[in-house]
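We treat protein structure as text, and this decision shapes the records that our systems exchange. The tokens are whole numbers drawn from a learned vocabulary of local backbone shapes. One such record is reproduced below, unchanged from the form in which we store it:
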Amino acid sequence: MNKEIDISNIILTTERLTLRPWKESDLNDLYEYASVDGVGQMAGWLPHKTIDTSKEILNIFIEAKRTFALEYQGKVIGSLGMERYREKEYPELDGLLGRELGYVLSKDYWGRGIMPEAVKAVISYLFETEHLDFIIAAYFDWNRQSARVVQKCGFEYIKTLTYHTKAGTAVTSIQNILYKSP
């Protein structure tokens, strides 16, 4: 069962990052990385063609209160959301509380271990503060970077599903799960 999440007053810090709620002043940073070809496609959406598209997404992030801005050296370089997982695809998880992670990182920061650092901070928050029983993290079968993040963070394969992207394509999604340690 999806647990309701509200991060509007939550700030997490790691060695290099501040994970915090989005602000209107983050618009230019969001557009800067979301408009780059190859970034959004990793998560199933097309690059932002205009700053107005980024503004719409920013408003969703702010209103939904479930997506962290990843701030590195004073600049927002990505996002990490605690999305609703597809409960109908997981009847075996009925009675347990969970969420699915979704994340995007500016291409300029790939390969530096930043996303695993952010994901581990959110895992701790979700298990220790929100008391989730499990967390799902999925990636498209061709997305090796996300596969590495999932692996580094201790998730285990659970199943393969078809995912219909915002870009209008159907892709193979490798589903992984991490259970709270007893």
Q: What stands out?
A: The beta strands are 12-13, 17-21, 67-72, 75-83, 98-105, 134-140, 156-164, 170-179.
